[in-house]
């Protein structure tokens, strides 16, 4: 007999709503299913290779109070027509331990992707501390389980434990939580298979919308500011080039002008046979001055 679970309509609510209603008595024997993590905790979800789910808080009611006597296995399978017949336990009620390799990544059947201690409602982390950087990772780990987050287990031949390798992009998956009694090893309870959840795919370049009308106001403002800064940068570069050419031309003219003014005439060296014209002219001037003086005296 399965343990009582919460009503289905409560399972469709985000995690915070389930936590708020966790005090309700678990007396209705109906099935729940794994839920995609709330956007409050996982803003980028799903991704190309991962899907983050909410842990099954307040889903199961164990027959004994010891939390460590129960664990929860998470099974993953690619959505197909045979999902309803997919078995997660053998004929003796033991849970299966099929791996990612054995099931071809969930295409031939479900594989165990994670296993953790059954979360209890009274052990809920304090959401008021989620803003603390030092405690955020611990709180998210307590609330969420990330399928496809292990990138090394497939490459490590000595890896021991449950391998949770990256999922395939643009693929539809479904998930199931199974409650296992660690003392007996039997399956105590299980949820329904989740609704199909797709991993993301890379958009072709031709489908990327570049129309400005589809952009936010902040993006348009930032683009305008950057365009203006680039324009002024190019304008300053052009002005610097022009001024550099003008400076080179003016410096050449000044150099030529100074050279013409300061150029000294090298006196021509006179040979011994050439008349000394300056002395002759000076002698003639003296003779004329003497003639004029004698005439004045007469």
Description:
The chain is an alpha+beta fold and 298 residues long. 29% of the residues lie in helices and 13% in strands. The protein contains 5 helices and 7 strands. Strands 2, 3, 5, 6 and 7 form a 5-stranded antiparallel beta sheet that branches. Strand 5 (172-181) and strand 6 (187-190) form a beta hairpin. The termini are far apart. The model is unreliable at 1-30 (pLDDT under 50).
Secondary structure: elements and pairs:
Layout: H1 8-11, H2 15-20, E1 51-54, E2 70-78, E3 111-117, H3 133-143, E4 144-147, E5 172-181, E6 187-190, E7 197-198, H4 217-261, H5 277-297
Antiparallel strand pairs: 1-4, 2-3, 2-5, 5-6, 5-7
Structural descriptors:
elongated, disordered N terminus, alpha+beta, single chain, two-stranded antiparallel ribbon, five-stranded antiparallel beta sheet, 298 residues
Q: Helix tally?
A: 5
State the helical fraction. 25-40%
- Mean pLDDT reading: 75
Strand content: 5-15%
Quick one: how many beta strands?
Answer: 7
Largest sheet: 5 strands, antiparallel
């Amino acid at each position: 007999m399965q343990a009582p679970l919460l009503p289905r309509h409560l399972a469709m609510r985000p995690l915070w709503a389930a936590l708020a209603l966790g005090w309700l008595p678990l007396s209705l024997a109906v099935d729940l299913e794994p839920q995609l993590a709330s956007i409050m905790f996982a803003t980028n979800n799903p991704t190309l290779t991962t899907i983050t789910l909410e842990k099954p808080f307040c889903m199961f009611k164990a027959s004994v109070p010891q939390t460590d006597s129960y664990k929860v296995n998470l099974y993953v399978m690619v959505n197909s027509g045979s999902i309803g017949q997919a078995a997660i336990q053998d004929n003796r009620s033991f849970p299966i331990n099929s791996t990612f390799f054995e099931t071809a990544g969930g295409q031939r059947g479900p594989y165990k992707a994670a296993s953790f201690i059954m979360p209890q409602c009274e052990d809920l982390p304090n959401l008021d501390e989620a803003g603390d950087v030092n405690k955020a990772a611990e709180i998210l780990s307590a609330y969420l389980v990330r399928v496809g987050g292990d990138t090394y287990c497939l490459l490590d031949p000595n890896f021991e434990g449950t391998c949770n390798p990256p999922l395939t992009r643009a693929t539809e998956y479904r998930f199931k939580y199974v409650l296992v009694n660690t003392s007996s090893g039997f399956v105590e309870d299980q949820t329904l298979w989740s609704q199909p959840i797709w991993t993301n795919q890379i958009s072709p370049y031709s489908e990327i919308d570049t129309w400005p009308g589809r952009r936010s106001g902040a993006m348009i403002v930032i683009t305008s500011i950057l365009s203006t800064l680039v324009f002024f940068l190019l304008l300053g570069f052009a002005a610097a080039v022009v001024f550099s050419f003008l400076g080179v031309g003016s410096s050449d003219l000044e150099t030529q002008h100074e050279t013409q003014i300061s150029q000294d005439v090298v006196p021509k060296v006179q040979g011994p046979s050439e008349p000394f014209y300056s002395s002759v002219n000076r002698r003639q001037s003296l003779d004329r001055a003497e003639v004029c003086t004698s005439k004045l005296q007469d």
